[in-house]
Amino acid sequence: MTEVRRAVAASASLWERDEEIAAITRAVDTLRADRSSPGLLLEARGEAGVGKSALLGEARRIAEALGCTVWSARGGETLRPVPFNVVRQLLQPALVSMLPEEAREYLGDWYDIAGPALGIADPGERQADPQGVCDGLVAAVRRLARREWPLVLLIDDAHWADQETLRWLAALAGRLDETSVLIVLARRPGDVSGDSARHLDEATAVGRPLTPLNALTPDATAGLTRATLGAHADAAFCREVWAVTGGNLYETVELLAKVQDSEMQPVEAEAAELRALNRSARGGGLVARLEQLGVDSTRFAWAAAILGGGITVDMVARLATLDRADAARCAELLRDARILTATDPAPGQPDGGDLEFVHPLIATAVYNSIPDALRTAMHGIAAQLVTDSGLGAAAASRHLLQVYPDDDQEVVEQLREAAREHLAVGAPDAARRCLERALQEPPLPEAHARVLFELGCATLLTAPATTIGHLRTALAMPGLDGEQRVDAVFRLSQALLHNDQLEEAVRTVEAEAARNPDPSARLRLQAVQYMWEGIHAGETSSPRRSARLAELAATCTGRDNAERALLILRGFDAMTHGESAEEVVELCDRALVNGRLAPGLGWTDTEWGLELPMMLASSYAYADRLDRAEALFTEALRAYETSGWSGGHLSLAHAYVGLGHRRRGRLREAEKSLRESLRIAERVGRGLPLYWSAICNLIDTLLARGHVAEAASLADQYGFAPPYPSTIVLPDPRSVRGRLLLATGRTEEGVNELEAAEKAAAARGRHNPVVVPWATDLARALATEDPGRAARLASDARRQAERFGTDTAIGEALRCAAALETGQRAVRLAAQAVTYLEASPCQYEHAAARVEYGIASRSAAELHRGLDLAESCGADGLVARAREALAVVHAG
């Protein structure tokens, strides 16, 4: 009899779902039609109990019947703090079934990045980049989708999925056009907020919603009642079933099952009993029914609700303090009462659970029925059981978060360890929750500042404003000494930088350096101060700063990283000020160890950050040592990709690789790298310095290619206009925007922008005409209107270029001078420009000089050479200009 009722209930759950089932069937057929077909996300949305889970069950049946691989997972209300919980349920079973060597080979470089989050690999020692882990999980699905095609992923109760899973889901949904997989998810409207809501909305926005799942109509309720109880159920009884349940599918099925159990006749005379019977299925009625099963069964159900997932009889027995036989008996009673059920083995639960609640509504009711004090105590016991089981501090932290603060230093240490584990797998928000809870315990006074410091490090990338408060508080307390205090000050200054408070960052490290008695610590802090000052794009500069930096660097031999940092900073300062390029290169070379970045100064090292190696590589790039610059840029890209750092660090790496291509004259490659940089920067957030690096270099490259309209469109689309960032961007964005305005015919605005660039450069003492190329563009713009001023600008640019001394700088100044002249003087200057730029590594500028020399001298041979160079660079505008000039020469 029980089996018959279950079969009827299962089919009943699909009443009035024909349209949704047809949509799922079509989606599965589309997926199966072609391995290269794009993926699709279907969303089933409805209130609790309307049949979302039943619809996903039918989706599984359809997909499996048509030969698809189906993986499924479910969010849990009490499991939301567990990072990667739902994505682990989906992917872990398939990966665990492989041999470790097979899984590593299959996931490739992503194994060490995504493997720890999936629980199939040990985490590394350093903090994982959350965006890199997310990208690794997306890559894992894409690879598994090819192997397991056609693959269907089912996610129930997505509104209760953990934030890390929802972030992954949003990223995967954004790439479904190139990932042949069908995702069907079910969610309630509401019940999610903050970043989780944003990620879930992003995912479903690119999907296709199924018809909203509504309550059953009176006619459907009557049909379901008669299908379950028999055709003799009278109309009044059926109407009362609908009135009592409101057409809620779950409540209707449960109520009809209870009618069968009670042997009630489905007639009007007994319809009045339905309301009392329905109350026993939920809320207080469910609690009363649970109590009727006995104290042991109640304790068993409570323990199962505390565990939430991975419910095994053995674990529940230990938590409820029952012996194994009694626990097994309770489990059977709760299954018969339709409170618990055996886990469907299909999802392959990673926690090895063999029981689950029949419905989330029941789980919530049972959990909420536990007395508050007892619930808290049971979470504490559960944390100890999880720890004793060897599952680690991170797994136990979900329970520790629910325990009342009690000045327990063991809890503090467990939460700190859990935070480290969360950071190692790329879950900084979970780490933050653990450390915030540890502070409530609270830690001992001597440890309090260290916990705050750890909290500040955990939130650095995700919430710099919050980090500032944590670190300032930590530094004001005793407990941070020596290197740890210097680290905290450095992290605070980084947070201030990320929060666009660069001047405050400078003052913070300057004040700490003044009071720190340790010479080595003071030297490091001074280096950090000069580093932040060096990237500050503010309007004022102290000549004394550069002089002091030069004095410090003069005594440095590069014996430690503080000295190497000062050498790099001095080289960068000299480069931006347009001092001797030879001296710049000599300073940079002294900062290397056997021609490579020293340990601790690498791209992924956190002691100093990425700013120093970026300064080093940029100095080489603008000093015409592109071989060394490109080696460093490529090393950065490889380091971030290998480490899975796919957020702001990777965006900057692509931007600087693009800068290297642009300087070389490989304009097509530069555009490709810079578009990728901009794509990642958009994901991180507009307005940040890395965003400006991407868009500024991309517009500069498009202008060099002659794609003026596209450059203007991108500038409008991405807000390439004042106000500019507080950090320096290479090349100078004012100069690039001025060139763009001139190219689009907005001459007056372009002149104004270049004059603003002149003013800003003078205030900061930045006289390198290659980094801040306002003068040559402004001279050309004023050639007709104010030839005297144009000539003075060109002369000054040549003087500064000769001071800097690179072939590129001098050649570009000569190109400008030639453009302002006519006749044989123009020819001579153009020829000199070619001579310098031919020796330069910058092929686009060489090509431009060749074409201009060919035009001035009316030489077809020079124009052909310039045309060949322009074509190899991808400079389409220059190619067109060369061909037009050739046509004139041949016609003449």
UniProtKB/TrEMBL annotation:
Alphabetical UniProt keywords: ATP-binding, Nucleotide-binding
Annotated Pfam families: AAA_16
Sequence ranges assigned to domain Orc1-like AAA ATPase in this UniProt record: 16-184
Domain of life: Bacteria
Keyword Oxidoreductase: no
Protein's recorded name: AAA family ATPase
Organism annotation: Streptomyces parvulus
